[in-house]
Each structure stands twice: as C-alpha cells, then as structure tokens.
Amino acid sequence: MPTPQSSTATIDDVARRARVSISTVSRVINRTVPVSPDIVRRVEEAMRVLRYVPRAAARNLARRNTNTLGLLLPDGLGDFFGPLLRGIQNVTHEHGYDLLIATAGRPDPEDSLPHSLGNHNTDGLLIFAGCLRRQGLIRAYAQGVPMALIHQTPPPEIAIPCVTIENKAASRALVEHLIQVHERRKIVLLQGLPDNEDAQWRESGYREALAQHHIPFDPALVVPGDFDRQRASDSVARLLADGVIFKAVFSGDDEAAVGVYQALRAAGKRIPQDVAVVGFDDQRLAEVMTPALTTVHAPTAEVGAEATRQLLRLIKTGQAEPLTLLPTEVIIRQSCGCE
Predict the structure, then answer these.
(1) Entry pTM
(2) pLDDT at 108
C-alpha cells in the first residue's frame, strides 16, 4: 500500500481533465458555493484518477483550522466502544483538539459523510469499520479530507492510513486451545457482521485451527452472531432446538458470548462442562462473567489512540503509516474448562 500523500498532480491538471476552471475545482473541494452534480462528479472523478489531494496549506487558505477531529461510529454503540473513545479522547486532549462524534446513517452508509463532519467543521476524520464503504471513502478522499480508518483497510485505489489488530493468529490459538487442551472437536463459530474484516480474519483462524488438527469444516456449525448478544443467543438456541451436537462455541466477540451464555443456560447446559465458550476483545465484562470468559485481549484503547496519532500526523505532514497492526493476546480463564 502506498504512503498516504499527495500525488504530483496539481489543481491545474484536475481542472483540465474535468474540463472546468481552476476556481470551479476549488469550489468543489471547499464546498463554498453550490455546484451542479454533473460538474461535481467530473471533478471528483478527475481527482480520483489523478490521485490529487489538496495540500493542507491550500485548504487552510479557504477555511480556518477548526482544531476539531471528527469521529464516525456505527449506530447502536455497545460496551466495546468505551475504551476506543477513551484512547481517542486522550490523544485529542493531549494535542489540544476537540472531538466531534457522529453516527453513520442507515440504510445507506455509502452515500456521503454526515453534514456535521464536513470540511468546515473538522480538520480530519476517524472512521470506524463499516460506517463508510468503498464509494463513500472514495468520495471523501477525492474531496481531500484527511482520514484514518479503524478496523478497516481502504480500497486499493486510494491511500488512507488504517489502524487495526491481529485477528487470525489469536483466533487460531484460541480454537487450538479448545482442541488440544480440552479435546473439543465440534466447535461452533458465531460469525461477526457481514463484510467486517475482523470477523473474516477470525473465521480464517478458526478454519486454520480445524485444518491443522484434521477436523473437517462443518458449515452447520457456522451461524450468525453479528457481534450482538441477542443475535448470538438466537443462533445458539436454534442449534440446540435442531439437535445439532457441539461441545464448544467461539462466539466471535465478548458481546456475543453473553448471548451464548444466555441460550446455553436456558437449555440447561453447563459452562464449560457441557459446552465451552470463548470470546474475543476482552471487554470489561469478560472477567466478571460466570464462569469468567476465556477470550483474546485486543488493545482497543490503543487502537483509538494510534489512529488519532496517525490522523494528526497526516494533517500536519501529509504522511502517515499505511497500516498499523497492533498485537493481541489469548487470555485463559474458566469458560474454556481451565481452572
């Protein structure tokens, strides 16, 4: 992935390719006056093709710095986001920035950024996975908005720094622990949200662990969890009602693990004697669950802090690390069967 920085293209090049004046390109970039949708489309396409990003100095001539960063999060925030916000706020406070938070609209997150996070309100944006997909990211990038992505890599044609965690190796180690130490071979996987990269890497780790121990992959043991306790509870309850035999559940994340506990207990199943349960993230609730949840510790607060550092670096220098991958660690507690 190339380093996120401006190409050698100039605003003159963009204007020529889009067949408009330089002042029109400036209006499109800075949204100072209304411009027809057709012209906006032509200018944004020219910027994308030429990989043109307005220089910070040019942007600052058109508008004053706000000393504010924007944060785009999904609707329905859960306990996972508390540490993430703490990490972000620690860094913004340290550098004298305010934080403006918006949630992604539904059902069309690809359309555009919320108006509250526009160019005139923020100096740069932190965007959480799934809040803007490919077309929305391309549009924002073409407008010259400095951005950093959290738990989501950018489309290959644009260069936006990303901060995320190591998912696959930890998931593989967690499932191998169930297989090797506790001799659990029929292991349910609760999948995360569709198109979520963390969920995809965790499933890859699950599959690799099965393959390493010559356990056939059984699609009947892979059901939706969506990182949601009710969805997870419903999926496990359906497996039990259908008479599916399983001895362990990899819940995908700790929030889903709560729903797994609920469904198993409602069916009279003991944890871990009848069914072992493991999670991912190591949220605060994991340690106080009964039994305490075996999981993977993800440095969620540091993800937020590092994404903010990279965004500030991009705003100030035009450059940032393309990808920051933070380490994770398996945390053994009682829900897997360990004492």
Answers:
(1) 0.79
(2) 52
